[in-house]
């Protein structure tokens, strides 16, 4: 690279440094802004005089370094949006200005006030500086001396081309070049007195001693006056806390410090903060900080979990249930969000991420390569040491490494399943366990770049938001059983029940999706497995009767295999070789002649193949459901809106259930919960169908297209054909003719399931243009009334505001106009002429064309549990 | 087009048989209608304290050959005409295997999916209180059917015994074994089907050992058909399917392994060592014996011409449309019609009733032996009619059963 020498505006400085070169980043370590301005001002003037592009990046609250003038472009930036956004914005600016520009930055120390840690400051510099270098620019930076961690300054020193210490000694300014890359003179790195036309080095020892001892009274102490709130706020709070009178909750300053610590750990969401301020004590915050690896925030998932626990412990007494006695303790660790960026920066991955965030069209193969790059990355030694300490603490207990990004699980963004969570069985020697753990962390980090997550962020308008990946490390609940490790019970629960399979169920009370073993089985749509759905208002009811109970039950158990050291799924009958599993009678029923019988004694009869997971005795004979109900009510009250939680549970020898709350987040319902009015004067032939079961609220009018997949014909397709059909759905979803019009998609079984025999094989991206998604539950065709409620797919629908309705055409109350859907003219081939063989299965109906001008309309009232799809005009139709 | 009333269908089937048998008008008319119908209205207290009213039925269609016998359905769409039709079919079914019982059926219009166990128990007891005067081991014996379970039978028996003040377990069958349920009920339907398949093969001069079988529908009956077809007849299972698709291996599939897999995993999907096959492909396989064991109307005029099996043993109810029946008959596919082929279930129910009455319980082997005798006799009765009248086996079965019931009515001097 050709590095042209440029005039710094000060001849003497050019002489000391042997000139400033294009590509140089120059960091001035100063005590005050005036000292920085002393150098920046001549630099700016020289650039203007030489007709070079000069850009001043203004982001600090201190006075302007450069006053406005002709030839100077001043760009204001807002660092309070967060490290991620700020860095991205700076990069965009630099890229936009291209090679050869001259930059003056505000004092970088101001960034620390916003971002809390020196680590992020160093990260910013380490990412930005090489980019400037590549573009042959010259950039001036300032850093306030003595206010930053030595490690951060060291990283800046290692990255920059020029680092100059500036200080006043004996009333006179001195400069002391610490680093001048690729240049050398015998006296270059001595302090120089800034005076006269030529700045002389302090080469005499007595002069040097005098100046340096005055400028650096404590040269080896890291930080004399820490500026980063991460340290300063904490230190102040420690000081107050250790005071004999303790923390004074009436002192505004102390409370402000507590709040600030809360913000640094939790984030800035106003509703979240309100809850955090109300429920978290200083001890809670200290407890978080004491278990935090690295620095930064703990992310939405960790914050939600901690907040919910604290709410339950505070509001502990509810309707006779003492939640304190029912809540298990936790000993989680957190990997601060700063570690994510440090990892990216250390391993040259930040710009890759920057590129991908802007351009989300990554294929699965490309993502695999990205994962490999992450896996090859290394952590800083200090972080690795902390990992070791944490693993020593857990010993060989299994742990789970869960993504906990800043956006995740906060209000309005569930990010369900977008980022990874990885179990570590945590077996083997310490080195093996550390390697496995770090691999898990890297894969979680890489998942921030997975195409689904980037696409999700972009669709939600979050592409530019500050997104940092913190990690929550939790002990896996449970106990070893044979060679396996799993919790007895796990699942998800919702404070509102939209899966009401009959009118008696009160939707205002919650629902539990309960499994035996790890809860992964409850949040994913898996094969032919069915979690037990427990309606809190009527726990004794279930949507199946008699012999069908076994069919719609959980067959496989997710667990950690301690022998193979990995996560696995096993059939229940392979795990339970005898009836000695503790409290087994609470979880299984015994099949005799294909009917389930609940065990009447502690000893469960029969052989393992006869046992089916019904949880009947748990539900009927313990207060599990009542406790869960109280937890949900308490959390919903505190949050001020519906919530969903993930939990594990175990039953003690006294048959008392204890709950471990592993996640809590605000629950968003599909469509809207606003009042809608149901149409009252429809002619029967206007009605296309009704739905009375699980209802999402909302109102969609002007539905022009209906995509109808014939359930019986679909059922007869080969597996290959079913897969192809899923892709065709995606093609219609993205077809230009459909864009700009509303489309309702209707098809059999469980959409989005991994088992194509159970329902239409699509990913969310295949249906994201649909306004309404209808799952047709036809038992005749083998498609079962198990819905996606509570799964990640469901959450995608929620956030995409797709109205989701399960319809039971066999139920006469559904008024399902099968003839309309089966005989209306099919325009499918007009859009996809190559797919003729699917014409009889995939029907695309142009509603106004078919009906002579009427569009379809859907009104769903979540309060009444009633939804209707109808033609919006009473047109003469043969259907 | 409106779906045909099931009772109208049942009457038409009878009409065809009556015409062929040359039944006199009075007997024909008598058999066209239920002998006794009871409609009751049941107030039941729900868990929330409110009282809900349920409508229920019990129909004794014909008791000329013995006490009525038939299931009790709890279904939200239940109508009296469905119950009538099913009661008629029970009459023919008990007659075709020549057990000394008539036909009956009961129903409660309710949605068991919205009822707790306590509510179901109260409804079961209320039903028995309302119909107790018309049931007993010598009058009418209900059994489980759609959405009713052995547990519900146990509550009903208990209520009845409380009312009459003594033990009377035979008033209900399908009870849990500790309360007088019979051994051998679990595999009774499939076992009965396997016995009649054996007899059919003998008549057709087919040595079944090493021959192939395919099973469409792998629920209770299908699973036992796989096990017993192999164990008792030496058939080789080559294909099986359930609602999620099928599996196929021309070299054979171990029935024990596949049943274990189904019980474990809930489906056949992914069974190792077999390739995937659709339900439709399975029906059209070139096998010796096909057991349709799942749904109604899977063999229709559309696919009947492609059915290649030698014997079709209908363990499911109504797997074939009448048009398909004719096509298979023309193509020399030997059909063992549903109400003969799956009569093993009601036969063991009858055994339960007998054992309850004697208060003496047979060992499993004895039940199997007696079931074999009944099914074998039942088959031969129908087969003789088939040869004599040159009709298809379904029509022959109707002729046998209607003739038996008509004869009993006549002997009693009713007509």
Summarize the topology.
The complex is a heterodimer of chains A (879) and B (415).
Chain A: E1 5-6, H1 11-17, E2 20-21, E3 25-30, H2 33-49, E4 54-58, E5 72-76, H3 83-97, E6 102-107, H4 109-115, H5 118-134, E7 138-144, H6 150-159, E8 162-169, E9 172-180, E10 192-193, E11 200-201, H7 205-215, H8 229-242, H9 252-266, H10 270-279, H11 282-290, E12 292-293, H12 299-314, E13 317-318, E14 321-322, H13 323-326, E15 333-335, H14 337-346, H15 350-358, H16 364-376, H17 381-394, E16 399-405, E17 421-424, H18 430-447, H19 451-459, E18 469-475, E19 479-481, E20 484-486, E21 489-494, E22 511-516, H20 520-523, E23 532-535, H21 548-551, E24 556-561, E25 566-571, H22 572-575, E26 588-592, E27 595-597, E28 611-613, H23 616-621, H24 624-639, E29 643-651, E30 657-666, E31 687-691, E32 698-709, H25 711-716, H26 719-734, E33 742-748, E34 770-776, H27 792-799, E35 803-807, H28 818-823, H29 828-831, E36 842-846, H30 847-851, E37 856-861, E38 866-871
Chain B: H1 6-21, H2 25-32, E1 36-45, E2 51-62, E3 68-75, H3 80-96, E4 103-109, H4 117-131, E5 140-144, H5 150-164, H6 188-204, E6 212-216, H7 220-233, E7 236-242, E8 245-248, H8 255-265, E9 275-277, H9 279-283, E10 289-292, H10 301-304, E11 311-313, H11 322-330, E12 334-336, H12 338-341, H13 344-358, H14 364-389, H15 393-411
Parallel strand pairs in B: 3-4, 3-5, 6-7, 6-10, 10-11, 11-12
Antiparallel strand pairs in B: 1-2, 2-4, 7-8, 8-9
Helix pairs in contact in B: 1-3, 1-15, 3-15, 4-5, 6-7, 6-13, 6-14, 13-14, 14-15
Question: Strand portion of chain A, in percent?
Answer: 15-25%
Give the % helix of chain A.
25-40%
Provide the CATH architecture of the largest domain in chain B. Answer: 3-Layer(aba) Sandwich
Number of helices of chain A: 30
Q: What is the radius of gyration of chain A?
A: 32 Å
| Global geometry of chain A | globular
| Number of E-type strands of chain A | 38
Mean pLDDT of chain A: 86
**What structural class do you assign from the helix and strand content of chain A?**
alpha+beta
Number of domains of chain B: 2
Overall number of domains of chain A:
5
Order of helices and strands of chain B: HHEEEHEHEHHEHEEHEHEHEHEHHHH
Roughly how many Å is the radius of gyration of chain B? 21 Å
Biggest interface reads: A-B, 44 and 39 residues
Instruction: Enter the CATH topology name of the largest domain in chain A.
Output: Rossmann fold
> Which secondary-structure class do the elements of chain B indicate?
alpha/beta
Q: Please tell me the overall pLDDT of chain B.
A: 93
Describe the global form of chain B.
Answer: globular
